[in-house]
Amino acid sequence: MVCRAGSVAFLIWCIIPLATAIISSFGGASPHEAIESFFTNSSSEGRGHTNNWAVLVCASRYWFNYRHMANALGMYRSVKRLGIPDSNIILMLADDAACNPRNKFPATVYANPGRLLDLYGENIEVDYRGYEVTVENFIRVLTGRVEASVPRSKRLLSDERSNILVYMTGHGGNEFLKFQDNEEISAFDIADAFEQMYHEIFFMIDTCQANTLYSKLYSPNILATGSSDLGENSYSYENDDEIGVSVIDSYTHFVLEYLEGINKTSQATMQDFFDLYDPSIIKSTAGVRSDLFTTRSAAQTLITDFFGGVAQVEVLEEEAMAGLGVDEENRVHTEGVTILPDSSQPARSPSHSRDYRSSRKEGLCYFLATRSVHLDLVHLTPGLVVGSTLAPSLGCFCTTPAKATWSWFHPATATPFERCYDNHLKR
Amino acid sequence: TCHIRVVFQVQQLFFPELFAFLQLRLPIDISLKSCPSHATLVPQILSEFTSWTNSHNDRCGHLDLHLVNKSDTSSYLGTASRYSVKLGCCRFTCANGHPEITLSDRNMQLGIPKEGIRASDVVRTLEDLLIPHVPSVQAQFSPRYRLAFSLLNEDAAVGGAASSWAIEDAIDGYLTPTLTELSIVHNFTIESQVQYHAPLAFEPSPGSRTVADSEWKGYELDQDELKTFINSAEWTLASSVNNDIVLHFILFVPTHSRRPLWVLKPDGTRSSTNAFIIPQWGGVAIEYLSARDRAHPFAIFRSQLHSLLGVPSVPLNIAVKSDSVLSAWQLDALLRRRGVENTKGTIEALNSIMKLADRISNMPVRVDVRGDVLGALDALDDVHTHRLSSASLLSRSSEALTLSSRAFFNPGMLAMLYFPVEHKYAVYTPLFAPVSVPLLVATIKEIRAWRQERRKKLGGDAKRDSGGEASTDN
After folding, report:
1. Range with the lowest mean pLDDT among A176-190, A319-333, B227-241, B267-281?
2. Contact B136/A314, CB-based, under 8 Å?
3. Which listed residue (A58, A208, A365, A420) is catalytic?
4. What does the H/E/C string look like for chain B?
5. Residues of A in contact with B182 (CB under 8 A)
6. How distant is the Cα of B165 from the closest Cα of chain A, in angstroms?
């Protein structure tokens, strides 16, 4: 009797969780009802955005996924060049390719087979690195629900007038993206995460079957594009024989090539960019989703609205200042600013005690020129600046793959190396 | 920690009352007095005002405006904001038939010129002062702001750059009065720095306009260049020690070879202040570094700060007689507007919390979220039911906004990850199937055995009942 009762009880105890699981799967509310994104003030339509944010995610680790890290770093560099400051960029790299023991060129990440441009450089800020790149952290960043102890640089502090660029790359499949090889994020989670305050979002994905990842979005004012369709793979672009792995994906390579032709004041629109999609170049069918992007069309949206940090400005006039509490007694004829004496004699350029803010432009050459005392000629590498140390501020010899030029400069003029770099290497 | 399901309580208790909160009505009394020679204007102004308030409900729906004739004292409400308008004759020559308007504290003196004025002009002036337009550059509301002043030299290496500035005196002289007045709205922290090398990311175009003095040809920045002026990649502008909103104020000193650097207005002419505001971010002033007659940079910063904080500007034809920087009309309008915006924000946040809890039915809501929501509701209750002065309206509504945002952005209020039905089956079946098969088989066997026993028992009873001695094996 006890035996029977015991076995029946045990059976019931086992069945109940299974039953509840089945019942809840039928009765549970579907989590993706359409919910209007709150805080998008209806009166802000017609007013543009005033700040830009970018969330760039590389979700795969290990050396053979070098190209995904190069993808994310390439986008980071382009977005920074077009004006979004580091404080407004959240860069998530799941692994460290630059300092990987298998990297033959340590502290560098290249995105093209000739190793022409180092994306890692000396001035990047990676906000989430290594094992911190998880699905939970990504969703917490996008929804703003981070712990109180998370520092400011790891938060997405967008408001209702921010345009956000979300770029994700890694391995993916039908409605999912793989994070760190042990978990995945589904298209439904991404759709639910886009409810934070924003003005407009541009969602760009470079994975296999990427177009499925944006199929479940429902929040308004989102423009999405992916690198390949359902059932298609996204392919890498080229291998570098010395690094030993593929260095960039073809879709991201296409995007970065296009962005190299854009500068901060460009008037190119998103529709121009989408019109250039060519499956034979990208090697997969890239798709666009714009049905949620209703306040304006892609043809009225500039590339720099998402990729650049360009804001509208308002010029203050004195008459306007009068209404704000400024009156006659505020006019001054003297300065409240102390000026250094105007040197009639050009100052000697202190070549090794100058405090350059933009240290990333000095690189190898500055290091050599300021430290080597008996070096006569520094060897030439494509794109480097050379100075002879017998006459340390004599001139610079710059080479690019296309040409080699020599420029002289006067010791009094500032920033010799920067000028050379700017003149000859700036695209 | 204790996870308490308070979601249902929130929905049932407070949902209907939240809609009542949308009817915020702040009472404002304006008394109108006129000198005998213009007594006929008074009824015209009263009727014009009433028709305007009725037709513009979207702008003044949150205000309970009463414009009364001074002689009628019975309609004074308890804690309403009271203003007075006195119509008089123009004392000095009123140029071009414009009235002479002076503000002092909460009183407005209108000097009417000989030609008379229209009632609609008076009503429009009142509208500009009581419900001013929101400046589009207004920054997001925060109870604390960090003001970061930077003196940036484009390149100090060539000499002739600014090595320091008398910032403490300037702040004391220009900013401290207004910051003290605005301290009921926000708390301010000030930081400052000097940088000696802050290059621009582009080359400004040389000045094209020929001026009489060719020395002032200089370089110019047009609208496109102004938009990309801030070289965020290379300039370090503010410390980011906490999550306060930072308003940046930059005094930029161009390098020796690029002086003077002019800022162009959208129509192409040179700006007289050589300064511009970047919405929600801060302001930039470009230094002439000459003895030219110009406004002090900190006066420019002060007016930029006012725009960024949303302080309404007094219309140009109105003179202000006041010891303080801001007139009472401006401060009241700012407090009212920020209070109403905060209340709206709180209601939106609370509605969103309810929708979120509704959408994810098995998400536990923590005790601290419950505390924040109840605190926000208390503050909202205060705002709506008690007649608060403008200052306490602002502080309570800002408390409500902080609490409701903190509740909504609480790290625990995260949607659980989505698992498709197929995943659930795929996970649970290998766990339960191997266990349940033997159990099921055992159950069936037990049931069969029990049935057989029952049949046997019934059969045995039947045999006994039907008589006959059962053979017993003794």
Report:
1. A319-333
2. yes
3. A208
4. CCEECCHHHHHHHHHHHHHHCCCCCEEEEEEEEECHHHCCHHHHHHHHHHHHHHHCHHHHCCEEEEEEECCCCCCCCCCCEEEEEEEEECCCCCHHHCCEEEEECCEEEEEECCCCCCHHHHHHHHHHHHCCCCCCCCCCCCCEEEEEEEEEECEHHHCCCEEEECHHHHHHHHHHHHHHHHHHCCEEEEEEEEECECCCCCCCEECCCCCCCHHHCCEEECHHHHHCCCCCCCCCCCCCCCCCEEEEEEEEECCHHHCCEEEECCCCCECCCCEEEECCCEEEEECCCCCCCEECHHHHHHHHHHHHHCCCCCCCCEEECCCCCCCHHHHHHHHHHHHHHHHHHHHHHHHHHHHHHHHCCCCCEEHHHHHHHHHHHHHHHHHHHCCCCHHHHHHHHHHHHHHHHHHHCCCCCCCCCCCCHHHHHHHHHHHHHHHHHHHHHHHHHHHHHHHHHHHHHHHHHHHHHCCCCCCCCC
5. none
6. 4
Cα gap A386→A408, rounded to integer Å:
12
At B416, list the tokens.
């659980």
CA dihedral A172, A177, A178, A179 (to 10 degrees): 140
Q: Which of A261, A283, A307 is the last residue of a domain?
A: A307
A with B: how many residue pairs have Cβ under 8 Å apart?
283
Are B421 and A412 a contacting pair at CB < 8 A? Answer: no
CATH of the domain at A173: 3.40.50.1460
Nearest to B228 among A86, A265, A413 (CB): A265
Closest CA to A76 of A55, A100, A47: A55
State whether B316 and A155 contact (CB < 8 Å). Answer: no
Place of tokens 């180092």: A118
Contact B297 A336 (CB under 8 A): yes
Query: Whole-structure pTM over 0.95, yes or no?
Result: no
ipTM reported for the complex, 2 dp: 0.73
Give the distance from residue A279's alpha carbon to the nearest chain B alpha carbon, in angstroms.
Answer: 32
Q: Mean pLDDT: which of A168-172, A351-355, B184-188, B394-398 is highest?
A: A168-172
Structural domains of chain A, count:
2
Same domain, A42 and A55: no
Question: Do A196 and A73 share a structural domain?
Answer: yes
Nearest to B277 among A316, A332, A338 (CB): A316
Mean pLDDT for all residues in chain B:
80
Residues A217 and A197 in one domain: yes
Residues of chain A with C-beta less than 8 angstroms from the C-beta of B287:
337
Neighbour tally for A130: CB within 10 Å:
13
What tokens appear for A314 in the block?
């308002």
Query: Which residues have C-beta within 8 Å of that of residue B317, sequence separation ≥ 6?
Result: B98, B101
Q: Which residues of A touch B414 (CB under 8 A)?
A: 136, 139-140, 143, 145
Q: Which domain holds residue A26?
A: 2-46+312-426
Q: Within this chain, do residues A408 and A317 fall inside the same structural domain, yes or no?
A: yes
Is A208 an active-site residue? yes
B127-147 pLDDT, tens digit each: 888 888 888 788 888 899 999
Let me know: does A48 contact A85? Beta carbons within 8 Å: no
Chain B residues closer than 8 Å to A87 by CB: 232, 240
- What local confidence, expressed as pLDDT, does residue A322 receive? 54
Yes or no, beta carbons of B295 and A319 under 8 Å apart = no
- In this structure, the answer to whether residues A214 and A261 fall within a common structural domain is yes
| CB contact (8 A) between residue A358 and residue B199 | yes
pLDDT over 90, % of chain B? 22
Judged by CB atoms closer than 8 Å, whether chains meet at B349 and A323 is answered as no
Of A268, A292, A307, which residue sits at a domain end?
A307
Give the pLDDT confidence score for residue A321 in this predicted structure.
61
pLDDT at A259 over 80: yes
